[in-house]
Amino acid sequence: MADYQRLGAAPVSELAREHRVRTRDGVHLATDVYLPSTSDGARDETPGDTILIRLPYDKNGEYTFIPLVAEYFLGHGYRVVAQDVRGKFRSEGEAQLFVNEVRDGEDTLDWIIAQPWSNGRVAMWGDSYYGYTQWAAAASGHPALKAIAPRVTGTSLGEPVHRDPGTRVRAVEMGITNLYPLTHFHGNDTFLWEPDWSRRDFEAQAEAFQQWAGARSRSYDQWVPHPVTLPRFPNGSAFAGRSVPVLHTIGWWDNCAPLSWADVEEIAQHPAWDAHHYLRIEAIDHESYQFAEAPGDRVAERTEQQIRALLPRTLDPALAFFEVFVRGEGAVAGIPRVVWQLAGTDEERTEAVWPPAGSRSETRYATIEGGISSERPASAEERSWVHDPQNLVPSTAPDAFSYLLTLPDEAPVGERSDVVVFTSPEQTEDVDLAGPVTARVRVRSTGPVMDCFVRVLDVAPDGTAVRIARGQQQLLDATDATTLEIDLGQVGYRLRAGHRLRVHVSSSDYPEFLPQPGTGRDPWTDGVESVPNTQTLIIGGEDALALDLPVLQGALA
Question: Which among 132, 361, 369, 405 is least surrounded, fewest beta carbons within 10 Å?
């Protein structure tokens, strides 16, 4: 039997008082209220500004350390409300991903502004799912919500890959997608477990867990075997209604960053939202580990002292934003539209737009000799490799959400026969990269479905390699060669003199992404039987493998 660990609700913080917020359908949501103290130590119930946090990870649990966050916000004069979302921990109702957050967020805002300690102005803050609950509450159009500060999240967070008929190219399914409703949204508690990744009977393992737990996950059953599209937002979009000022934080190494950038792109199509959309891009991963983390802080379990030291860099940008948009102190014009960290340096820069003005796209081509050149090879040649479902390219980080915790050396992956490698000449000067990275790759397979992974690395003089950009796509009817245009995300990075760029092309990254069994069948429900496929990549000619890189300063070798 798998090792199933069950986490129940932690005790309510001594700083808070728990209330039960009744929603429109009669469900009561467990809600902690933190109020500042008066000079004599009593709870200050005079009206003031409130920060709301709605999350599924236990409002009192160690993982999100909300009591410490609340204490920090209290020190800046805010009232803080922390709530377990519907069906989680101390809250009533059925745990179901995403679909209840607009209404429940709106009802919670109604409750807050009816309290004697509220002045009617509310902001929201939080990461990941409790970043998503901010987008949801904002989509309700509630007038009391004055600003939000979502971090490392997206409005399509957790959405499974839909198998639209007639579509040959689609996203590659993350391994966490079908697991998430069986860990964090399976009843009130959290269940910590993973499948045995050495086996491919994922559906059977999911069924075994649900049998052990004595109940089924509604969200899982709505996703497997055929994902059902459930409405998350009124009018289908988070940005269709009343706009709210947003401080939008994205991590360069966040595995959910593509969802954040998709929201940036959609917001640009909604002028009312775009008018007060402020972007903050940090050199962090999903769990807020930094690229330039001090060695002693690159630990899996942070101490309370380390968490408290983390709070200023995590919360101060939101507090400065709320000072203007919630409290009306300071000038809107004084807030930069874009703040971004140039990874590889200690620089934090400001811009009027993203990508920065002056960033130019330069194209580099793979060569048949394994190089990277500014000149496209005239003739087309092929490189092939075997995709063996029983010997997959391993994911380099033990946990994709905390990639920077281990900051793995990517170079050894390139020694495998099923990874095609291209390396640039040595840089003669520092080059700053800032903006979108794209790869154009023409591929085919002897199998019906092919996944194509492209990773861009910075190779140091000692041979170690750091991943700086990545993307992947899935090709159906893969025996028919097709050119894929793969979004490798956005980058803000200094490539140092003496370093080289390297590109890895492969067809698996396991277990972060579900692997193709080679049969064309669904890897989650029918991936036990497998056959090897031969994958082919075109190099040179009209369909040359090309990489578009955003150069802000310096010259690429």
Answer: 369
Q: Is 5 exposed, middle or buried (0-12, 13-18, 19+ CB in 10 A)?
A: exposed
Helix 129-139 crosses helix 101-113 at what angle (to 10 degrees)? 70
Which tens digits make up the pLDDT trace of 116-148? 999 999 999 999 999 999 999 999 999 999 999
Strands of 449-459's sheet in order across: 169-170, 465-476, 449-459, 500-506, 420-423
Yes or no: say if 72 and 316 are a contact pair by the CB < 8 Å rule: no
pLDDT at 165 over 90: no
Q: Please answer whether residues 101 and 137 qualify as being in contact, where contact means their C-beta atoms are separated by less than 8 angstroms.
A: yes
The H or E element spanning position 445 is strand 431-445
Helix 304-325 × helix 66-74 angle, to 10°: 50
Q: Please give the structure tokens belonging to residue 136.
A: 């949801």
Cα-to-chain-centroid distance, residue 130: 12
Number of Cβ within a 10 Å radius of residue 409? 16
Burial label for 1, CB within 10 Å (0-12, 13-18, 19+), is: exposed
Residue 164 pLDDT > 80, yes or no?
no
Amino acid (1-letter code) at residue 543: D
Rounded CA separation 8/490 (Å): 38
- Tens-digit pLDDT profile for residues 43-89: 989 999 999 999 999 999 999 999 999 999 999 999 999 999 999 99
pLDDT, average across residues 332-347:
97
User: Are 317 and 123 in contact, with CB atoms under 8 Å apart?
Assistant: no
Is the Cβ–Cβ distance between 108 and 81 less than 8 Å? Answer: yes
For the chain, what is the mean pLDDT? 96
Give pLDDT tens digits for 437-469. 999 999 999 999 999 999 999 999 999 999 999
| Residues 193-221 as b or e (16 or more Cβ within 10 Å = b) | bebeeeebbbbebbeebbeebeeebbbbe
Instruction: Outline where DSSP puts E strands in 59-151.
Output: 79-84, 118-127, 145-151
**If 0-12 CB within 10 Å is exposed, 13-18 middle and 19+ buried, where does residue 472 land?**
buried
Beta carbons of 356 and 515 less than 8 angstroms apart:
no
Using CA atoms in the order 39, 43, 44, 45, what is the torsion angle rounded to 10 degrees?
A: -160
At a CB cut-off of 8 Å and minimum separation 6, what does 75 contact?
none
Three-state secondary-structure class, residue 156: coil
